[in-house]
Amino acid sequence: MTAGDELALEHLPTGVSGLDVILRGGLLRGGVYMLQGTPGAGKTILANQLCFHHVTTGGRAVYVTLLAESHSRMLQHLHSMAFFREEVIPKSLYYVSAFRMLEEEGLSGVVDLLRREVKGQKATLLVLDGLVAAEETAKSDREFKKFIHEIQSHAAANGCTVLLLTSGLKQIVNAEHTMVDGLIELEDQLFSQRTERALRVRKFRGSDFLAGRHPFRISDRGIVLWPRFEAEYARASRKEDPRKACLTSGVPEFDTMLGGGFSQASSTVIFGASGTGKTTFGMEFICASSSAEPGLYLSFFESAERLIEKAGGIGLPLQKLIEDKAVEVIWEPQGERIIDEIAHQVLDAVQARNVRRLVVDGLNAFTASALYPERISRFFSCLSNELRARGVTSIYTGESRDLVGGTLRMPVDGISALVDNLVVLRYVEHDAMLSRMISVLKVRDNDFDPRLREVRISRTGVTIGEQIAGLHGMLSGSTSPSLPVG
Amino acid sequence: MQTVLVVDDEFGVVEVLVAALEDEGYRVVVAANGRHGLEQIDEHHPDIVLVDYMMPLMSGVAMVEQMRAEPRTGNLPVIFMSAVSESVLRESTTAYSAFLRKPFRASTLVDLVKRTLSNGL
């Protein structure tokens, strides 16, 4: 080892995939980190998850609590978590209580206990749970700072990474925050009826990190964290392939309107009122998938079974394509999913099958998952860029707010500038009949047919008729004969 | 009056066990780690030892190893209490009379103490 090697900061992966992305590889080996959050925020689970990952990858850890609560109860709760490995306790993961030491010998006794345990267990990761108890025991701020400083010194001397868990009930930025190498906060925020957990790195010495809030859940896998999408993908993860072919929409006349089909890796919004045929166009596109051009259908409103039935009704072989693994359908019923979670799920599915065709059926439901609506345009910009860079041609269906009428309102504000192509489906009333109409409003970098044309959906699929001539006012939803000019 | 030594670093566990055992007429002495436990054995000569596995300074296994090496304490009944399973404990030691996995009810432990004392090691 050279002097330079000793100075190099080595990352210690946490094993929580999203957290390692946020921390650009993990904590820094030998650093002292504070994990702060109110009771129930997930500190103990996260710290244990780190310990189990650390010891199953060759490290050794000691978990020391200053609280009166029993380790056995904590371990009982952790037992059902996927990361829990009983066989590593106590050989490489050792749990001890320092509560009585704190009561009887104060902070100096606890420092001595920590020093002995780190040395005795050859620990490379130390967790001290319940720092607030040490803070309450300290007779002065100075004594408490000295306590933190001593832990730091022993950790550095032994190459041991330290995680200090505290409830952080104090409102001010405490002195100890300035002493540690990093400060990670866990919070549980209420949004109307719904809560969302989030992690935020407030300080991280010696390395870049993704700032801001990142949502997470506590599940039987432990902490599952999704870096805020627009922070992680502020820049696309790879370079876009400049070669562009065209992909069929599945409807030959529609391909003609688009100037030859969808440009490869483009993004398209098809919007219209309920029942105008958005899902049908999405299914036509996805049913043009093949093993060479795999498809992914993310449905917010209809299950795979319902989509298969619907596709069968218009002669589309969706079931066969799913059986052949040319298409995957993910049904995402509207619940309390996190928008970043869904976006990462889409990217994972794209990666897993090298997806080339994507339909997101229910743009409005997707965006409704965002607790901060002001994120949406940045979020979609980053999602579109990333999918484009991965060579995925995407269609989003969005429901317009008006069944008929003269106003065209986008399902998501500002989205028209973010996507390459815009297509509108509308009802028009003519001679006491409602007909469906399609028009292409925008195709980026290509000529397109801007005429308004009638859409027919039958048992053999979608057909698009010729231009509806001799009528005007169709965009308002109600037609009248065009008056002769001159 | 029989004496029970409880060796456990978990304050809450010790408090509950002391109360439950004293209610049954035992004299109870406590220690927070293995090293202190050995000192308490020298001083109080308990009839039985209840010992936790993981503790600071000296583990329960290390403490029992030292007990077994001494003729005076080599046959003292020992009940291990641990959050890990008995199979994990048995990889380190088999020199104990009974095992109880944490968390447990105090009454279960008291019954086990009575049975172990009547059976010997």
Overview of this protein structure:
The complex is a heterodimer of chains A (486) and B (121). Chain A is an alpha/beta fold and 486 residues long. Chain A is built from 16 helices and 24 strands. Chain A has two domains: 3-227, Rossmann fold, CATH 3.40.50.300; 246-481, Rossmann fold (3-Layer(aba) Sandwich). Chain A has helices at residues 3-7, 17-22, 43-56, 71-78, 99-120, 131-137, 141-158, 175-179, 229-232, 252-257, 278-286, 304-313, 318-323, 339-353, 363-368, 376-389; strands spanning 11-12, 27-28, 32-37, 61-65, 93-97, 125-129, 161-166, 182-191, 194-204, 213-219, 222-225, 246-247, 262-263, 267-272, 295-299, 327-331, 357-361, 393-399, 421-430, 433-443, 453-458, 461-467, 471-472, 480-481. In chain A, helix 5 runs parallel beside helix 7 (141-158). The longest helix of chain A is centred in the N-terminal third of the chain and has 22 residues, at 99-120. Chain A is elongated and about 95 Å long. In chain A, 46% of the residues are buried. The model of chain A is unreliable at 1-5 (pLDDT under 50). Chain B is α/β, with parallel strands linked by helices and 121 residues long. Chain B has a domain at 34-45 and 58-74. Chain B has helices at 11-23, 34-44, 60-69, 86-90, 106-119; strands spanning 3-7, 27-31, 48-52, 78-82, 98-101. Chain B has a five-stranded parallel beta sheet, with helices on both faces. The longest helix of chain B is centred in the C-terminal third of the chain and has 14 residues, at 106-119. Chain B is globular and about 30 Å long. The two termini of chain B are 19 Å apart. The chains are: A alpha/beta (486), B alpha/beta (121). Chain A binds chain B through residues 64, 68-73, 75-76, 86-87, 89-91, 94-101, 103, 113, 116-117, and chain B through 9-13, 32, 53-57, 59, 82-85, 88, 91, 102-103.
